[in-house]
Amino acid sequence: MTGHLSAAESLRAALRRGLTAAMKARRPDEVTALRTAIAAIDNAEAVAAPAAAPAATSAHIAGAQAGLGAAEAARRQLTGDELQAILRGQVAEYTREAGRYAGLGQAVAAERLRNQASLLSRYLS
Length: 125
Prior knowledge:
Layout: H1 7-24, H2 28-45, H3 80-103, H4 107-121
Helix pairs in contact: 1-2, 1-3, 2-3, 2-4, 3-4
């Protein structure tokens, strides 16, 4: 390891630190926003499932894989720019939904979503 974090690793670490702090301070709206952002990043790192089912290697369970590493799949490595794009998408979604809630007369919910968008905006560079 080179001793310094990449932009992606740094952003991910900042999000996790923010989540820990929000949980300790019992700020549920911040916890929700940060968990959602981290989950969106985790989902983006997932590899696509194979189109064809692999041949079964177990006589007892259909489609089962056996052996060391059978259940492991390498995750995609996202760049800092890709993580920033995911966060921008989250901010845009919160802002869009806040507008919808405001239009429906749900001012409290709209304000909560705006606050969540503002929180995630702090992590954008």
